[in-house]
Amino acid sequence: MAAYLRRTAMWYGGVGLLTAQVARSLALPPKYFRLVINEIEVMGVRSLGVALTAAIFTGMVFAIQSAVNMARFGAEAYVGPIAALAILRELGPVLTAILVGGKVASGITAELGSMRVTEQIDALRTLGVNYIKRLIVPRVLAALVVFPLLTVLADVVGVLGGMVIMWIERGADMYTYWNVTTYWVVPRDFLTGIGKSFFFGGIVTLIGCYNGLSTTGGTEGLGRATTATVVHVTMGVIVSDFFLTKLFLMIFW
């Protein structure tokens, strides 16, 4: 138990140190704008299908489940606001961060881990290249742009998916559904989810980068690091979601 706690503390300390190094390197030249754009394409465009597919089916499932149960209390008219609030505040940003984050972070770990075990990162340091600025900062900046944008799209698709399934399965009037939803949902509900996704993007990317840079043990160690990244990303998103929820409740409510 003591050894596990010691390893956990060292891991959190390593991620914190990497975060500090990334923050310090942001202001240093050169500016790798081309790399940032490339990472935005890799993280965002190639993950769009995963995020939107999960969002639309999540919205439909949540809406139809809510309708079936709320009909027993005569409150089926409020399915729209409940589904929209759940998607905007929690399901949209959290599911996007877990699904896209697991895909993105594991890819980062595999890439940086391969460079680590083949001593390419040591070669960059020997040549005097700031590998944090070259390899980590563009990925973090891209994630801070991509995750909020993907969350916005996931929110829109999820809410529309819930509205369409209510019209198909329950015969709900789409105009009334939309009016009731927009009456109860306010901008701060939307901004809460977007704010969370901003932090999730940074957390996910830093976890992937740290696990990649700390890879040891050759190809076997690379496999372990990639697997661990998926677990760490999932747990990091879920745990940080609680604290972010408390923070935004104090700010917006």
Topology:
Layout: H1 2-25, H2 33-43, H3 48-70, H4 79-117, H5 120-126, H6 131-169, H7 174-184, H8 187-213, H9 218-252
Helix pairs in contact: 1-6, 2-6, 3-4, 3-6, 4-6, 4-7, 4-8, 4-9, 6-8, 8-9
Question: Can you walk through the features of this model?
Answer:
With 253 residues, the chain is mainly alpha-helical. The chain is 85% helix and 0% strand. The longest helix is centred in the middle third of the chain and has 39 residues.
User: What share of residues are in beta strands?
Assistant: under 5%
What is the gyration radius calculated from CA atoms? 21 Å
Q: What general form does the structure show?
A: elongated
SS class: mainly alpha
CA-CA gap between termini: 40 Å
Overall residue-averaged pLDDT value: 89
The structural domain count equals 1
Structure annotation, total helices: 9
Helicity, in percent? over 70%
Could you describe the largest sheet, including whether it forms a barrel?
Answer: none
Please count the beta strands (DSSP E, at least 2 residues each).
0
Order of helices and strands: HHHHHHHHH
Unreliable spans: none
Name the features.
85% helix; mainly alpha; 253 residues
Short description, anyone?
This protein has 253 residues and is mostly helical. The protein has helices at residues 2-25, 33-43, 48-70, 79-117, 120-126, 131-169, 174-184, 187-213, 218-252.
